[in-house]
Amino acid sequence: MTANVEHIGGEIHSFLEGLVAWSVTGVPHLVGAIVLLIAGWWLAHRAERGTRRILDRQTRIDPTLRGLLSSLVRYSILIVVVVAVLGQLGIQTTSILAALGAAGLAIGLAMQGTLSNIAAGLMLLWLRPFRVGDYIDTGSVAGTVKEVGLFATEMHSFDGIFLFVPNSELWNKRIINYSRLPTRRLDLAFKVAHEDDLARGQQALLALAGDDDRVHPDPAPAVFVDELGDSAVVLQLRVWSSTSNYWPLRWALTERGKAALEAAGLSIPFPQRDLHIKGGSPEALRKATT
C-alpha cells in the first residue's frame, strides 16, 4: 500500500515538473499565437475596408471588381496569419502545407456546390456579361446588380426585394442585360377604326415623336400599319431612345399618343364583329340580332 502511494506521488511529481517546464517554454508561444491571431484578424478587416475605400476612389476600376478584390485581400492576410500562428505553436510549415492540401481535397469533394459558385463568380468577373448597376433577367430572377461576390451576387428587384443569388445560378442561365447597350428601340401599338384616315394618324404619331427630345432622330421614328385586325387597324410607332429614358418615354408616348390620335379625328374602337345572315327568315334574323 505504501509503495502504491509512493508510486502515485512520483507520477504526480513528474507531471507537475513537466507542466512547469511546458509553462516556461510553451505559454509564451501560446500567448504570442493568440496575440498574433487577434492582431491578424483585426489587420485583415482593416485592410479589406481600406482597400475598398481606395478602389472606390479609382474611376478606372470597374465597380464589379471592387468587392471581390477587397475580399481577396482579407482572405490572403488571414491565410498568412493562420500559417504564422501554427508556426508560432511549433508546428512545421511543411506539415501545415501538406495538411492543407489534404484538407483542401477533402473539402473540395464535400463542397462541390460552393466551389462551383466560386468558379462561376470568377467567370462572371472575367467575361462580364453584366456590371454593378445593370438590370438583368435570367428567367428565374430579375433585378439590378448591386455587388458580385466570390460566392453569390446581390441584386435588388424593381419592387424593392433583396435577392442573394448563387453565382452558379447566374452562370448556367441565359442572361438578358437591359442596361448594357446605350440605346433601345421602343415599339408602341395603337388601334384605330377601319374607316379612319390612316395617313392622318401616321402624321399625328410622327409629330408626337418629333416633339419629344428623348426620341433620337437617328434612326428616324417610323409609323406603319402593322396589322389589319377584325375590329381595328394597328398602327405601330417605332422610335429609338437612350436606355435610361426607355420607361418614362414609353409611358409618356402611350398617354400622349391616344390624345394625339383623338385630336386628329381618329377613334380607338371597341372589339366588334359584323354578322351577315343569308337565306334566313325574318323571324330567324330577329332572334339573331336580339
Q: What is the third-level CATH name, the topology of the largest domain?
A: Helix Hairpins
- CATH hierarchy: architecture of the largest domain: Orthogonal Bundle
Taken from the alpha-carbon principal axes, the silhouette is elongated
Radius of gyration: 36 Å
Helix count? 8
Total domain units:
3
Q: For the residues shown, what is the average pLDDT?
A: 79
Structural class: alpha+beta
Q: State the end-to-end CA separation.
A: 121 Å
Q: CATH class of the largest domain, please? A: Mainly Alpha
- Widest sheet, order of strands: 4-3-2-1-5
Oligomeric state of shown chains:
single chain
Strand content: 15-25%
Helix content: 40-55%
- Give helix and strand order, one letter per element, not per position: HHHHEEEEHEEHEEHH
Largest sheet, in brief, is: 5 strands, antiparallel
According to DSSP, the number of beta strands is: 8
What are the low-pLDDT stretches, counting only 5+ consecutive residues below 50?
none
What does this structure look like?
This protein has 290 residues and is of the alpha+beta class. It folds into three domains: 2-110, Orthogonal Bundle (Helix Hairpins); 127-177, SH3 type barrels (Roll); 183-263, 2-Layer Sandwich (Alpha-Beta Plaits), CATH 3.30.70. It is 55% helix and 17% strand. The protein has eight helices and eight strands, in the order H-H-H-H-E-E-E-E-H-E-E-H-E-E-H-H. The protein has a five-stranded antiparallel sheet. The longest helix is centred in the N-terminal third of the chain and has 55 residues, at 2-56.
